[in-house]
Amino acid sequence: MAKDLHRTNFANEIIGVENSPVHAQQALDLGIVDRIEPLDKALAESDLVIVAIPVDKIAVALPAILDLIPASTTVTDVGSTKRQIVDAIKDHPRRANFIPSHPMCGTENSGPKAAIEHLFEGKICIICDHEEGKPQHLALVEKLYQALGMSIAYMSSDEQDHTTAFVSHLPHVTAFALANAVLAIEDRNIIFDLASGGFQSTVRLAKSSPQMWAPIFWQNRDYMLEALEVYIQHLKEFKECLKNEDLDQLIQLMTNANKIRGVLDGENSSMTKNEETIIKLYTK
Amino acid sequence: MAKDLHRTNFANEIIGVENSPVHAQQALDLGIVDRIEPLDKALAESDLVIVAIPVDKIAVALPAILDLIPASTTVTDVGSTKRQIVDAIKDHPRRANFIPSHPMCGTENSGPKAAIEHLFEGKICIICDHEEGKPQHLALVEKLYQALGMSIAYMSSDEQDHTTAFVSHLPHVTAFALANAVLAIEDRNIIFDLASGGFQSTVRLAKSSPQMWAPIFWQNRDYMLEALEVYIQHLKEFKECLKNEDLDQLIQLMTNANKIRGVLDGENSSMTKNEETIIKLYTK
Prior knowledge:
homodimer, globular, disordered C terminus, alpha/beta, 6-phosphogluconate dehydrogenase C-terminal fold, 284 residues, 3-stranded parallel sheet, Rossmann fold, 13 helices
């Protein structure tokens, strides 16, 4: 994000706050940040604060950050869950300075060296409970994501946690479990030798950081349990077809799954990705 | 495959046998085949016959193909399962002309228009029960896959079916079931808008053809049931961690899954992908 905010001249200067001296030096060396400062100094000098740490740490750090910022500072986060984060600051006097956001993109890699440009372009950012932020803070965060080339969707924190449980968090668990299942059964050399493109793409997310993802699953565990239950039921349908030798139903299950092609390729969408910014209000 | 065999001059001429007049014309127009002929004429004029149809059809067509070929013709197939195919011709007088093979690559697309060059390069081809083929037929099929840039692994049909159940067929079911679970819960526009790269790569295989994959699952259903059972158990472990609020075990499961990174990136492999051809004999 810092790379793109430099490149697009959205930011004049980017100040990093970083616990790890190694990562701090890498971020400086790579030109990702202009300087590294302690938290209080960085907060005092910034117009916009972007909190990009694991979601359990956001819930802890955010009240302290809101305590320290000047009255006019805008704060956002990039966490994948929202209910617990919003709940942690719901009565804070600076609540309206905070615009909760979830840019839906990333890779399975982490650390300053994993930073790549153009990661956000054409992707969606969810902004949550936008009516609870002051208009100028909302406007600045919208402008931030527009500068990154993202489209914006507006949802309640509850709706975002439910939806991302299915379209983001569940796919991570399916990949982690697939890796564990294959590692439990197969010789490592056989996996390496035989892993086709299909296996590699399906299991890719299993490379993701437990430090980042465990708190996400944890904060969203009620919806994750729902998503896992639904998913296991759908797997059991495949199993029953094979067990009961019901070939017609097996083909039916796969034909239904094929509909994801139309959805992902946009045939059924109301949205034009080419528009510069699309603002949608989802209502349940 | 035909594209690459033209490009590498492995084949002087490629004759297509095709039921669909539309696909036959496309294959001619795209230069994938030099001519289209009826099966008996094509078999009479070919040195090497490559059977590339759904695996249930291979089991039916292969005895008829072996009936029709001249004594010196080599036959191979590209099916993803092997036990039922090999079983269908085990007592055929031309059994030794047939070299069962499974090149481990592909895309989720099908038909002549989906043909792409260099698909096979750097991938693995499994040759099964190679001791049952005559040496000259084995040699020609090995040369075929070497021309495509593939490495070769040798296995029994039983071992190939068990291994591919885990590293190829299971990932397809996990993707089909993920698509069905998400399609069952979420609004299509929400899926389209929010689908991140992570979701798209994990669910990609759900776009695969039921006509191709149902017979594969069907022929391999005993090992598929085993693989699905193992996979569901690993999913349930995640579910139990969330239900029992066991964060340590959750992190442990993800840390174990991370080992797939080392395996896929080759840190634990005995194999150098750069070698032109690697011939391995797996023994259980």
